[in-house]
Specification:
The complex is a heterodimer of chains A (385) and B (227).
Chain A: H1 2-13, H2 16-50, E1 54-55, E2 66-67, H3 69-86, H4 94-116, E3 118-125, E4 129-145, E5 151-158, H5 159-164, E6 166-169, E7 175-183, E8 186-190, E9 208-212, E10 226-233, E11 236-244, E12 251-255, E13 258-284, E14 291-302, E15 307-314, E16 319-321, E17 324-332, E18 337-344, H6 350-384
Antiparallel strand pairs in A: 1-2, 3-4, 3-18, 4-5, 4-13, 6-7, 7-10, 8-9, 10-11, 12-13, 13-14, 14-15, 16-17, 17-18
Chain B: H1 14-36, E1 41-46, E2 92-93, E3 101-104, E4 110-115, E5 122-130, H2 136-146, H3 154-160, E6 162-166, E7 169-177, E8 184-192, E9 197-206, H4 207-222, E10 225-226
Antiparallel strand pairs in B: 2-10, 3-4, 4-5, 5-9, 6-7, 7-8, 8-9
Classes of the chains: A alpha+beta (385), B alpha+beta (227).
Chain lengths: 385, 227
């Protein structure tokens, strides 16, 4: 009985009708995602429509649940795999096998990218050396032990952990953070006379009032993530601090001879190597303001590899280094600041493999059909003569 | 000769396993990635250069290349509500005792950093803020909070205060030591200048080196004069 149902399900999963339905759904999702980018920004729209299994609560869909591109892609992959397995295992079908396998690899590559790709950026000013990349949207509360004159011990508490609230023990330190309130986005202002006192009892937040704001995801907006956090160490409370990306100056306290700095900022990933920006070029066509070229000349220094070399990163010519790809993305500060978009995608090779397989498959298939056709013509000529 | 494939038999093994394996694999991958994004990460990194423009202030998402969206520069925005450092003109001046050296800046909001000729954890800094900077009581309590001491009221503030005469005026001096096994000590001089700025000169660190450096630090406070 179960086997019958399973067999029917499998027949449905590999049917051409399902292929057409799924491709239609993908087309609809692409249109919706494109329209949604106006309000939600690129990352927000892609996450809502393309990287989710179900699209929830979207105004464009009248808040009706709709299959997301991740689900459609998964079903399409299974559908394609089913169709591939239908093919006869003969040399005559070798080309079709290669083409289908190439398409499955392409789909798998998108799944790997969707689940494992990490998009960050690196902002460097001319002459500055930077050894970290930072997220576009995700935040961290960095607790930094700055006691050592040469090194900083950085403990990064991700915003997702802060959002849960409650006590957070920081491993390797005597510090416990008790998150009293967390605001994914907020507006800070000076505490008005007569207003209720701030939750903060220490630091600059004692004179600030915090108003929660809706979360933003548009490309040119940034959430002012904030939190009231009580800091305790060694059984003593160091008061409740307001930490926010809107507060530029770091706040510090001392415990048992160690100085700790608290700062809310975009989430960083430190690298075992560093980039120094030696030169940034913003060339224009003569007599116009139309950009011709953007390029960053960086010195890559990697002590573990005993490597120090110059690399020129320019439009469509990224640097692939240690699993990350650094693209020239933006600039600022009168052309003295370069922003590199940094992409880490373990499956970056899969689309290339897919293209090679599909191209090879089509060539093989063409050769097989051509050979068969020539043979038929030869046989026909033989019959006539 | 190759055996012909048996399409009726072969795919029958797949309905149970293919989707299940794919779904479980995707689920495990997703949950693994989800867990990683919620863990506290630890890095040991070289100190950043003091003038690093992307220090505590996060970069805005970059605008598309070549397109002016009107968004602020990625790391050049002035922090809201934070006062700008005072201009060099009309600034407070001081004389350093033998063995002491000075570097401009040294961190966010700092006007100068002193290096003292004493071993151990010790730091002397000069910070200048426009206006009363929240008032003396609030600032003193903020410093006390940094070494886990309870806040003072106005009476407690007056009791803790000593003074040091200088050519720039009277400097209010506070000296606090923390509890705990390794005691931290903080000596702070507080003075308002005629241009409306408030200056903080702080000596902080472990109790022993701060005690050794205190006489020199008091000499610095006594040497304060206007430019």
């Amino acid at each position: 009985m179960i086997k019958t149902y399973a067999s029917q399900l499998w027949t449905f999963m590999k049917s051409l009708k399902l292929t057409i339905v799924l491709l239609s759904l993908l087309m609809i999702l692409v249109v919706l995602c494109t329209l949604a980018q106006v309000e939600m920004g690129t990352v927000g729209a892609v996450n809502a429509y393309m990287r989710s299994f179900i699209v929830w609560n979207q105004p464009l869909l009248l808040r009706i649940p709709f299959p997301g591109a991740a689900l459609v892609g998964l079903l399409l992959t299974i559908n394609l795999a089913g169709r591939t397995l239908e093919l006869k295992r003969t040399w005559a079908k070798a080309g079709m096998w290669l083409v289908h396998t190439g398409l499955v690899v392409l789909f798998a590559g998108e799944f790997v990218a969707g689940m494992m790709q990490v998009d960050t950026n690196m902002s460097i000013e001319v002459g500055q050396t930077v050894n970290y990349v930072q997220s576009y949207k995700n935040m961290e509360l960095a607790v930094i032990d700055v006691t050592d004159p040469n090194w900083d011990e950085v403990y990064s508490v991700p915003d997702t952990l802060l959002a849960r609230g409650g006590a957070i023990t920081i491993p390797g330190t005597p510090i416990t953070l008790n998150v009293k309130r967390y605001f994914p986005n907020a507006e800070l202002s000076n505490l008005a006379p007569g207003a209720p006192p701030s939750l903060a009892t220490a630091g600059v937040g004692t004179g600030a009032s915090v108003i929660e704001r809706p979360v933003v995801s548009a490309d040119n907006e940034m959430n002012q993530t904030s939190a009231f956090v009580e800091v305790a160490a060694g059984g003593r409370s160091y008061g409740t601090w307001l930490t926010s990306v809107a507060i530029g100056a770091p706040q510090s306290f001392m415990h048992e001879g160690h100085t700790y700095v608290l700062t809310m900022r975009l989430r960083r990933q430190y690298l075992p190597y560093a980039f120094t920006l030696k030169q940034f070029r913003h060339d224009v066509y003569p007599g116009t303001d139309i950009p011709k070229n953007f390029s960053s000349l960086v010195q890559v220094v990697n002590p573990s590899q005993k490597e120090s070399r110059e690399v020129l990163i320019y439009m469509n010519q990224p640097l692939r280094y240690e699993g990350k790809t650094f693209y020239q993305a933006s600039f600022g500060k009168n052309d003295t600041l370069s922003v590199l978009s940094v992409v880490e995608n373990p499956g970056w090779l899969l689309p290339y493999v897919s293209c090679v397989l599909v191209a090879l498959g089509l060539l093989v298939h063409f050769a097989i059909v051509l050979r068969r056709s020539l043979k038929r013509r030869q046989d026909k000529q033989g019959e006539l003569t | 000769m190759l055996n012909p494939p048996n399409p009726l038999h072969r795919p029958s093994l797949w309905p149970f396993w293919a989707p299940v394996i794919v779904m479980i694999g995707a689920g495990l991958l997703g949950s693994t990635l989800g867990c990683n994004s919620e863990q506290i990460a630890h890095y040991r990194v070289p100190k950043e250069a003091p003038a690093a423009p992307s220090g505590p202030r996060p970069a805005m998402p970059p605008m598309p290349m070549g397109e002016n969206t009107g968004a602020p520069d990625p790391s050049g925005a002035q922090t809201p509500n934070m006062p700008a450092p005072a201009a060099a003109q009309g600034a407070l001046k001081w004389s350093l005792p033998k063995g002491w050296s000075e570097a401009p800046g040294g961190g966010a909001m700092r006007f100068a950093t002193f290096k003292a000729p004493f071993a151990g954890k010790l730091e002397a800094t000069v910070v200048v803020l426009p206006g009363p900077a929240g008032g003396e009581l609030a600032n003193v309590n903020r410093w006390r909070g940094q070494i886990a001491l309870p806040p003072l009221d106005e009476a407690g503030l007056a009791k803790s205060r000593t003074t040091q005469k200088s050519k720039a005026g009277t400097v209010n001096v506070y000296d606090f030591t923390s509890d705990g096994q390794v005691k931290s000590r903080m000596i702070a001089g507080y003075i308002a200048t005629p241009d409306g700025n408030t200056w903080f000169l702080k000596l902080t660190g472990d109790a022993d080196p701060v005690a050794k450096a205190k006489p020199d630090f008091m000499t610095i406070l006594g040497s304060l004069h206007l430019d």
